[in-house]
Amino acid sequence: MVLVLTIGDLHIPNRVAAVPLKFRELLVPGKIQRVLCTGNLCDKETEEFLKVICPEIQIVKGDMDDVQSEYPERCVTNVGQLSFGLCHGHQLIPWNDPNSLASLRRFAWRIILFNLAYSKHRDMGVDVLVVGHSHSLKMTETVDGGLIIDPGTATGAPVAYSLEPKRPSFVLLDVQGTKIIAYTYEIYGEDIKVDRVVFERLANTTFQ
Amino acid sequence: MERALRKPEDEHTKRRNATCLKIKEETHLRRSGSSSNVHHRNDVLKRRSASLSALSKIANGSERASPRNTNAKYNSDGNNINVNKESNSAMEHAEQQKLMRETAQELRKNSVLLRQAIEKEDLVEVLARATEVLQALRIPTIHPRLYYELYLAVNNELRHLEWFFFDQVKRNQITALKLYEQVQETPHVLSRLYLLIVAGTVYMGVERKLTKNILKDLMEMCSGVQNPMKGLFLRGYLTQLLRSKLSENREDNENEQLGITTQEAIEFLLWNFGEANRLWIRMQYDANKERLKRDQERRQVETLVGLNISTLAHLSGLNVSLYSNVIFPTISQQICSCHDPIAQEYLADCVVQAFPDEYHLQTLSEFLTMCMKLIPGVSIRQVIGGLADRFAKFSNISLENRKLVEDCGTFLAFEKHLPSILSSQGNSLSLLDVLSTLLSLTQFTLKAYPGQVDYIHTLLGFAIDSLRNSNFLSRKAQEKFSYQSDDTNVGSTIQKSLQSSVVLEEGSPEERLIVRLLTSPLEEYRSITMTLKLGNFSTLLSFLRLEMQRFVAASLLRNHAEYRPCIGAVETLEKLFEFIRPLVEESPGEIEFIQQQKNANSSQVHPFHAHLPREVVKVSTTKVRVAEDDSGYFEQVQVLVARIVYLLDETDSSSLFGLYRVIRRYLYRGGPRRTCITLPPLTFACLRLAHRRYKESTLPSGIPSTVESENSAEHIFEFALETLSSLSEADAVTSLRLYLQGALALSQCAFRNDTVSCVLRCYYKSTQIYLAII
């Protein structure tokens, strides 16, 4: 049993001041074993904040992160028996499209066709893909038994094209073998709403 | 069995009056009669007069010639003084050690004999052995620390003796009176008095009605020892024995247990305190030793005097009125009259620490008046700071305590007396002392009066005054100022010296204290609006060097709970920027530094960027970055400045734009190094506001869209684009991103014709920048 925190799109300080207090009270050191961050932290202090929660952390580069930062564009990592792919998602064309996301998880054909710049990237070939950029929490199971998780924005930062404040959220994954229990945390006004979703048998079938 | 025990008591009560008279007679007899006693008393009187005359001699400034000090007299010429003194003290030390060893050995031997005698229950032998044990305390002059060791060892034996006496009296082997009399036949004054104290306490335990007389008798007898150190230890012993008895003297027994009222107990203790204090002060006139050493020795025995005060504080039946009417006036009079910095400081501190806070609150004014009379050189910091620290803890405990503190007008009393206390100390009070006293008071005020910004304002004002008045100008700085005044006009020099008459050295304790004076209200309030009410804040801040000013300003921004919107008016915002000006503005030295860096960068790729791909390095030449040691810290702090945008009250969209303009005006002063961090949040906030204004204007019920109005969405877009174009010089990549965001945001709004051109301009600009980057 491993607790994995997926979090991203914080946009501190450019779009919001800080992580909401309610989340900071929840996200304390010593409980979480892994952190997967989809990027757009925009700030060293935020990175430190995440590293304090858990030093075992993977961060990928978002479109608003410092050009000089050393985060990779994407990365693959294993948790338990499952492989996790991490990518911010702004690179996809069209972005936030279920098909392009699914193929990022599996094959890279579509990406290669649309944008030659990405042809150097292989498909990620992972069981679970963690992406961001849309600022809205979403979890979709693909037809071939994979999972795509978008933890949304942890700070409620608005998106550039609508400028409306979003709902702060993150997702905590309890990985047990090939099973994932996902807890979603969202702030509604003054309250935190927690949901529990179970994804059974996520074993990788795409390569067979 | 019970009856048997009670019987002697009944007999005692019957004979009470008779015994009372008897004991008076006895004392009388003892004073004039018994030959050996007379001899000793004369001896003592002689010694006392000798020491008194010595005292007056010292007061007149003449040296006391003591027969013991012949060595020193011979050595008092030429350059050899120091060498001789050293060798002298080394010799003395060795001698003392030898003496100590011998005495301790003797003491051990005698203690064994005493215990054997006690086991045999032979009173006569016990008394003889006890006298031998007590011989150890009659050792000639010795260092107080060594004497204390002996005292402890003897004390231990006397406890056995006390138990033995008590047992003897209880089993009717001897009456307490008889014992009390028999003990007085001991040959030497010091030994006799110790035994007398032991016998006296036993006697008191049995004959409760006589306690007062016995105490009085003991107290008078104790004056017979006029050697300061030995007398102090003797009186310390008396207090120590009384201490447990007096603190157990419970009210529910109607004071019957000891046979004296609390009032009487207080009188005795105050008397003993006065005598002990006198002896203690006399220690400083021991001309045989140099001053520093004497002071050290006095410090080592101070607890013997303080023991009286702490015993007073632990008296049962003590209350506020007794404290304020009887105890405090006497102690304070003692303290004021002793004209000795060590004694005054220690005793004042003792009073502060020993008695409960409630008492201090009631007598605060009197206490502070006493502080005014303390002679220069007493550490005010310790006395007043200690008191303030206690009050701070006290008011932190509960709301009722806090209310009590308020009701007593505590702060007002401090405010009223503090200036005169500080001025009464004159030059002997260092800036460090003043500041640390003020810090303690500030921390107390913050705890006890959470909402009273005025009070903190006053305290900061005191700090400013002390900084201005202090003669702390280091010689170097003075030279600098006089050098400056040669060519610049005098007016500005005076202005300058007024502004910062104190040159605080880097990392000096004074500097740290000022920083803490400034930051402790911030940490307590955790609200920027509260802090902005502190008028003296920025004045005091200006005394610090730039780095520390920045540090304090950053903690002002950092100590605001949860970025709760709090600024609604332009004036408040401007005030905030005035407070944090050191953070926002570029200092002259910084501009130079950046220029140098730029020059260096133009010739070669800066090592800081060497690991990056080529194009990024290109970007970074347009984006001015200075690779300093503290660049991480610098960015962190500037992020705090950038977050000011989120402090604004966003409810009224029409006034918000005015505030944004103020922010930009101040942020522009920071130079490219700051704007690349501080401007993006502002720009994004502007885009959001424009969007919001646009949506409000399209609402049917909304304010009719007046394009010409100052706050229209178009204007705000224009403003944002202006900001972006200035940002593009500092940070091309960020401005490119923001241009694209701006274009996205604009395309959401269906403006009239010029909107299209606006969007086009955005894209045009971003393409330009993109091309420049590639």
TrEMBL record, chain A:
InterPro entries: Calcineurin-like_PHP_lpxH, Metallo-depent_PP-like, Phosphodiesterase_MJ0936/Vps29. Pfam families: Metallophos_2. Residues 4-176 form the Calcineurin-like phosphoesterase domain. Belongs to the VPS29 family. PANTHER family: VACUOLAR SORTING PROTEIN VPS29. This is Vacuolar protein sorting-associated protein 29. It comes from Galdieria sulphuraria.
UniProtKB/TrEMBL annotation, chain B:
GO terms for cellular component: cytosol; late endosome; retromer, cargo-selective complex. Residues 67-83 have a biased composition (Polar residues). InterPro entries: Vps35, Vps35_C. Gene3D superfamilies: Vacuolar protein sorting-associated protein 35, helical subcomplex Vps35-C. The keyword ATP-binding does not apply. It comes from the Eukaryota. GO terms for biological process: intracellular protein transport; retrograde transport, endosome to Golgi. It is a peripheral membrane protein. It is found in: Membrane. Residues 57-83 are annotated as: Disordered. Keywords: Membrane, Protein transport, Transport. Belongs to the VPS35 family. This is Vps35 protein. It comes from Galdieria sulphuraria. The lineage of its organism: Eukaryota, Rhodophyta, Bangiophyceae, Galdieriales, Galdieriaceae.
